[in-house]
Design brief:
It contains four helices and 14 strands. By secondary structure, the protein is α/β, with parallel strands linked by helices. Helix 4 links the parallel strand 13 and strand 14. The radius of gyration is 18 Å and the shape is globular. Bound molecules: flavin-adenine dinucleotide (FAD). Flavin-adenine dinucleotide binds next to strand 5, strand 7, helix 1 and strand 14. Belongs to the SIP oxidoreductase family.
């Protein structure tokens, strides 16, 4: 048996200057029934940097009030003029509430990304697993992958209308799991999908979902012999807790 710890993928960390940028909503779109796409613009974007698809920045909500609140979001797509953010429309929460009500011309402050973690190595197959909060990172990742890269996604969304199309040069296989948003804390559909998909060697698995779900998927992979250095798992939100995440799930 090959020892995949010897040349396991490396995580290359880069730091960015932590800055607040003051932007304006330039467009809003109901991308799918449960996803709101916001395009932000502003001169402050001229040096915006995001080196990895699973980067995150802070949306600073009520920035001018006595009690601003911050939530983590993925830079879905960006250039020096525009930054696209996809926000899951879930009940409750200041970020989801803000996105639902956002209108062209509204002001929004963002902070970061503070740093990036790029995964590099001799990877034959990428497996990207997540719920709708991970879809911006997964979509961006697949979109940015070079030609012939083998990538499979397993994404949980409420139904077929919430699936997304991504234009990519990569060799992409998509598996969509359908379950209502209020069942996003159930890992069972992901584990069943994994059981139906034996993983070859040199498969890097990236996971981001509700924290208990992400942990259950990681545990399942480890129990089935996948080495922890070939897995990166994060809890992008925590059921029942506001402003909570578990960004680097370890043993
Ligand atoms: C690195 C990283 C990147 C992320 N990128 C994105 C992104 O691009 N798009 C995106 O939509 N989210 C993303 N998230 C998740 C997002 O930060 C959380 O969902 C956040 O809690 C939403 O803030 P809120 O103010 O709407 O709700 P909060 O005030 O944080 O939470 C209020 C309640 O809603 C629940 N809740 C939070 N999120 C969800 C959900 N998705 N479904 C159901 N219930 C929920 C909480 O458990 C809590 O009970 C990311 C998280 C991380 C850590």
């Amino acid at each position: 048996m090959t020892d995949h710890t010897i040349d396991a993928p490396r995580i290359l960390r880069t730091r960015h200057e932590l800055r607040r940028r003051h932007l304006t909503v330039a467009a809003t779109e109901r991308l799918t029934p449960h996803m709101i796409r916001l395009t932000l613009t502003g001169a402050d974007l001229h040096d915006f940097a995001s080196a990895a698809p699973d980067d995150h920045m802070k949306l600073v909500l009520n920035a001018d009030s006595d009690s601003p609140q911050m939530r983590d979001y993925t830079p879905r797509r960006f250039n020096a003029q525009e930054l696209v953010v996809d926000v899951v429309d879930h009940p409750g929460g200041p970020a989801a509430d803000w996105a639902r009500a956002a209108a062209v011309g509204d002001a929004i402050t963002i902070g970061g990304p503070r740093g990036s973690q790029r995964i590099e190595g001799d990877i034959d197959h990428w497996l990207l697993i997540g719920d709708e909060t991970a879809l911006p990172a997964i979509g961006r990742w697949i979109e940015e992958m070079p030609a012939a890269t083998r990538v499979t996604s397993i994404v949980g969304v409420p139904d077929a209308a919430d699936e997304q199309t991504v234009t990519t040069a990569a060799d992409w296989t998509a598996h969509w799991l359908h379950r209502p948003l209020d069942q996003a804390t159930d890992p069972a559909p992901y584990l069943a999908a994994l059981d139906a998909m034996p993983l070859g060697p040199r498969t890097f698995v990236w996971v981001a979902a509700e924290a208990m779900v992400a942990r259950a998927i990681r545990t399942h992979l480890l129990e089935n012999g996948h080495h922890k250095q070939w897995i990166k798992a994060s809890g992008y939100w925590v059921a029942g807790q506001a402003d909570a995440s578990d960004k680097g799930i370890e043993d």
